Automatic annotation (TrEMBL):
Domain RecA family profile: 68-218
Keywords: ATP-binding, DNA damage, DNA repair, DNA-binding, Hydrolase, Metal-binding, Nucleotide-binding, Stress response, Zinc, Zinc-finger
HAMAP family according to UniProt: RadA_bact
Protein name per the record: DNA repair protein RadA
Gene name linked to the record: radA
NCBIfam families: sms
Family, per entry: Belongs to the RecA family. RadA subfamily.
Motif annotated as RadA KNRFG motif, chain positions: 255-259
UniProt organism field: Stakelama sediminis
Superkingdom of this protein's organism: Bacteria
MF annotations from Gene Ontology: ATP binding; ATP-dependent DNA damage sensor activity; damaged DNA binding; hydrolase activity; zinc ion binding
Keyword Signal: no
Job description of the protein: DNA-dependent ATPase involved in processing of recombination intermediates, plays a role in repairing DNA breaks. Stimulates the branch migration of RecA-mediated strand transfer reactions, allowing the 3' invading strand to extend heteroduplex DNA faster. Binds ssDNA in the presence of ADP but not other nucleotides, has ATPase activity that is stimulated by ssDNA and various branched DNA structures, but inhibited by SSB. Does not have RecA's homology-searching function.
Lineage: Bacteria, Pseudomonadati, Pseudomonadota, Alphaproteobacteria, Sphingomonadales
Amino acid sequence: MAKPQKRYVCQQCGSVSSKWAGQCGDCGEWNTLVEDGGAVVTPFQAKHNLQSGGRAITLSGLDTDIPLPDRMATGIAELDRALGGGFVTGSATLIGGDPGIGKSTLLLQAAAKLAQAGRSVAYVSGEEASDQVRLRARRLGLGNAPVQLAAATSVRDILTTLGAGAPPALLVIDSIQTMHSDLIEGAPGTVSQVRASAQELIRFAKERGTSLVLVGHVTKDGTIAGPRVLEHMVDTVLAFEGERSHQYRILRAVKNRFGGTDEIGVFAMAGEGLKEVANPSSLFLTSRDESVSGTVVFPALEGTRPVLVEVQALTVRLASGATPRRAVVGWDSGRLAMILAVLEARCGLSFSTSEVYLNIAGGYRVQDPAADLAVAAALVSALSERPVPTDAVAFGEVALSGEIRPVAHGNLRLREAGKLGFGRALVPSALAQEKGAVQLSGFAGLPGFVDHMLARG
Ligand code: TYD
Ligand code: MG
C-alpha cells in the first residue's frame, strides 16, 4: 500500500499543497499552512471510482405543486426581513461578524423569542459557560424563556444528546470555530475541523428538519474565518456589520438559497440588547438645524429600502507644494478620485492644492453609484464654503463625460426624503418630471450642476 501522503491546508484560504511552506502560494498569507489528516484521493483512485461506481439518476421536470419551504418567523422583524421571512426548516444559516458585534446577543434574543412562542430551541455555546449565557439572558430580560442551554464543543456529544429525543426546531451553535469533530484529526478552528463539524451538524439538520444556525468568526480582512468552504456548505449566509463604537448594526444577507440577498435588517445595540430600528434614516442623519458647508443628504437604497445618510466632505487648502491627502470613510476611494477628476476636467474646479476628506456619517458604508451627485455636491460645497440647503437631498450617477445619469428607484428615494421632511431634491434631469411632495431640480450635466451650486449666495 502506498504511504499516505501528507497534505497541508492553508487556514486562510483553504488551498491544499503537498509541501509545507512559510507562505501560502495562493493567498500569500504567512504561517497559515497546517498539516491536515484528511483523506487524499489520488488520480488513480479517482479514475477507478469513476469506472466502477455511479448509477444513472432520473432527472424529472419542474413540479409546480411543490409547496414553498416551511419558514419559522422569529418575531424579530428586522431579522426575519434579512432572512426573507424567517428560518427555513431543515436549512443551515451561517452568521458572521466581528467579535463583539452582537452575534450571540442577537441569536439569544431570537432563540428566546421562538422558545416563548412554543418552539423547542437549543443554544449550544462553545465560548461561554451556560451560566454566562443564562446571565446574559437575564440581562436581556429573557431569563425565563424555555431555551435549552448547553456549553459543549464536541459535535458527537451534541448530536448524541439531541438525537436521543425529538429534534429541536432551532439549533444555535456559537461558534463553529470552537466545535470539534472526532471523525478527523486537528485542533478546533482549523479548516478541516470546521468543515467536518459543519458537515455533521448540517447533515443532522437536513435529516431531522432542524433549522441550524452557525456563528462564524470573521478574520481581520472581513471574511468568515478559515473557510470559504463553509459559505458553500450552508444555505444562507448573513453578515452582521457595523462599527463597534457606533450603536447601530446592519444584518445583511450575503447568500440566500431561499430568498433575495437585497434586504437588510437594522438594529441598535442598547443596554438591554439589540433593538430593532424600523426607521433607519433617523439613525444616520446627524442633527441638522444649521446648514454647514460640505454636508449633503443622500437617499441610499438597501435592497428595496431607502435609508437617508449624510455625506460629509472637508477640503483643506495646503500652503506648501506637498502632495495633498485624500481620505475616505464609508465610500470607495477610487470613485472619489473619479468624481474629483470629473470636477477638475469638466467643471474647472481645482482640488490639486487641497486635501480632501470624505465621510459617510454614522459609520454607514455606501456602494450605490447614485451617491456620485451627493458626493460631488458635498465636495463643491466644501470647496466653495457654500452650504447646501438643509432641506435638500441629492442623488444621481456621474459619468466620466460629466453627464448626470438617472439611477434605479428614484421614486422610492424621493418618497422617503419627503416622508422625513425634505422639501427639495437635486436629481438627474430625466427624473425632474416626477410629481410628488418634493420639489425637484433636474440637471443633465455636472457643469450645469456646479454653476447652480456656485450661483446660490
Ligand atoms: P456579543 O453578542 O457577545 O458579541 P459577539 O457574539 O458577536 O462576539 O455582544 C458583545 C457586545 O455587546 C459587548 O461588548 C457588550 C454589548 N452588549 C450591550 O451593549 N448590551 C447588551 O444588552 C448586551 C447583551 C451586550
Ligand atoms: Mg459571541
